[in-house]
Design a protein that fits this description.
The chain is mostly beta strands. It contains 1 helix and 12 strands; from the N terminus they run E-E-E-E-E-E-E-E-E-E-E-H-E. InterPro entries: Asp_endopeptidase (IPR008503), Peptidase_aspartic_dom_sf (IPR021109).
Length: 148
Amino acid sequence: MEIASRVVLGWRERVDLPQLGIRRLRVKVDSGARSSCLHVEEQWRFVEAGAPWLGFRLRTGRPDGGLVEAASPLVDERVVTDSGGHRGLRPFILTRLELAGVVRDIEVNLADRRRMRFPMLLGRTAMQDAFMIDASRSWLHNRRRLPR
């Protein structure tokens, strides 16, 4: 996609992850992070049709409690370095991202982000060729629609 046709994002946005049953999840948009990361409070592994899967629970940060339980095939495990320089092996899943009219499948690693302000970090591989960031702005897309 040409630069002129890329969607401009603020440093924080709301995204939908429809395959996981998650709508309007607050994310920090971070071009310094290679991969995207989704907060999970609990995760477990199981086998479905001979393939490894991950089940997980997370709180979306919504006022109603927002507890979500989902499952997805495990696509990879890789060592990830967090913002504090700590390295750890993390599981990766593939899921659909919907943001500002752009729909694409992205890889997401699962980790405990309980101490972070945002339940998801949107990394640069998920944004590649579709988005640009204006770090001086936020909440440009997926705003709550007010009733008429």
